[in-house]
Amino acid sequence: MSQAVGGPAPADRRIPLVVVTGFLGSGKTTLVNRLLREPGLRETAVVVNELGSIAVDHHLLRVSEGGVALLEGGCVCCSLRGELSETLRDLFMQALQRRIPAFSRVLLETTGMADPAAVLFTLRHDPFLVERYAYAGTVMTLDAVHGAVQLSAQPEASRQLAQADLVLLTKTDLATPAQQSETLAAMARHHPGLRAVTVDTVQAWRGTLDALGPYRQAGPGSGWQGWLGLSGVGAETARAMATASHAGVRVISLPVPGALHAGRFLAGLAALQDAHGEAILRIKGLLRFSGQAVTQVLHGVHKQRYPLAPVPGEKAGKALGLVLIVRGSTAESRAIEARAEALLQESAEPG
After folding, report:
1. Does residue 96 sit within a domain?
2. What CATH number did the domain enclosing 340 receive?
3. Where does residue 118 fall: left (phi above 0), alpha (psi -120 to 50 degrees), or beta otherwise?
4. What is the C-alpha separation between 288 and 256, in angstroms, rounded?
5. Helix (H, G, I), strand (E, B) or coil at 139
6. pLDDT of 203
7. How high is the pLDDT of residue 64?
8. Pairwise CA distance, residues 186 & 146, whole Å
9. Which is one Pfam family of this protein (predicted)?
10. 292 lies in some domain
């Protein structure tokens, strides 16, 4: 779905899709099972890898063709069949034909080894889905006991964390205070500014789904600068945040001092992604373009860039920044950093 660089955006009537990810054994399926019992998730479609993994047999009213289950609370649950695009297309058409209830949100549970970036690619490149679904962010379940080790030793876990907009810290009842602190510290090294919520009750965080993702609002407290990972820091501090972390993951945080030329910046960013896409786990930014009155949210993964979106309710003048989360050799990460810095300089408008 194309969108102009600036100006007021029309109301987005597409169905928001939230990805639920997390490493093997981190509690994703347990979380989804709990969510499916929540009356607040009425009009939500949940896509899981195996319908049999959902322990709600006593709640089932019927199972229609295509492996779609209608739950007592009005939630639609289905298993991922083949390509994600096919599953989402079938869900939409069944609701349109009134074979299942209409839904206003989708939760997609990924496998423990999956990279959420693939979901963004599918939503961006399937014409049918582009017009009907909007990526609304990624929730990651993170094991409080083993999370620090997994983030350091498992590339899949670090990739999942790079895509996350919210972390749900699980198994806190089993973790020692030291283990929980180590997990949170590891999370902060891999993804500064990322918000973590302890999963004591579903009610403690369920409301965040309504405001999740960089295309809605950034949540309480640090706001948009918190989402970007630059909350409360000046230019020199932000520049110094480009530090290496475990598992070869490096966070490159660059302040943006002012307005950019949209054409030069977007063309240069595309060239950067083409050259280093495999190493770029995530790009996120708060940017202002010349001639535009609102701050724009930038989000990308690997070689893909999601359409720019204006920050809701905010005017220009907020702190701006560009963050790249990369994984690869030191030489490549430095090359990406140098190229990103040069791009910002070349795109900067005078004054």
Report:
1. yes
2. 3.30.1220.10
3. alpha
4. 9
5. strand
6. 57
7. 40
8. 11
9. CobW_C
10. yes
Token representation of residue 78: 């289905």
Query: Does residue 343 belong to any structural domain of this protein?
Result: yes
The answer to whether 44 and 76 are in contact (CB under 8 A) is yes
Question: CA-CA distance, 10 to 342, in Å (whole number)?
Answer: 33
Q: Print the domain residue range for 161.
A: 15-211
Are 290 and 173 contained in the same domain?
Answer: no
Distance CA 319, CA 312 (A): 15
Question: Do the bridges between strand 133-143 and strand 166-170 make them parallel or antiparallel, or are there none, so unpaired?
Answer: parallel
Same domain, 175 and 299: no
CATH of the domain at 60: 3.40.50.300
- Please tell me the distance from the alpha carbon of residue 187 to that of residue 166, in angstroms, as a whole number: 11
Rounded-to-integer distance, Cα 89 and Cα 194, Å: 32
Number of domains in the chain: 2
How is the beta sheet containing 60-64 ordered, strand by strand? Answer: 60-64, 68-71, 76-79, 44-48, 105-109, 15-22, 133-143, 166-170, 196-198
Look at the pTM and tell me if it is higher than 0.85.
Answer: no
Structural domain ending residue among the three candidates 211, 242, 262:
211
Distance CA 264, CA 156 (A): 33
Contact, 310 vs 297, CB < 8 A?
A: yes
- Could you tell me if residue 225 is inside a domain? no
Which of 156, 178, 211 lies at the terminal end of a domain, its last residue?
211
| Intervals of the chain under pLDDT 50 | 1-4, 6-7, 51-67, 69-73, 213-222, 230-246, 315-316
Please identify which residue in the block is written with the tokens 């920050």.
Answer: 311
pLDDT at 341: 96
Angle at 14 between CA 92 and CA 139, to 5 degrees: 90
User: For the purposes of burial, counting CB atoms within 10 Å of the CB of 217, is it exposed (0-12), middle (13-18) or buried (19 or more)?
Assistant: middle
Q: Are residues 69 and 202 in the same domain?
A: yes
* 164 and 48 co-located in one domain: yes
- What is the tens place of the pLDDT at every residue in 261-289? 999 999 999 999 999 988 898 898 889 99
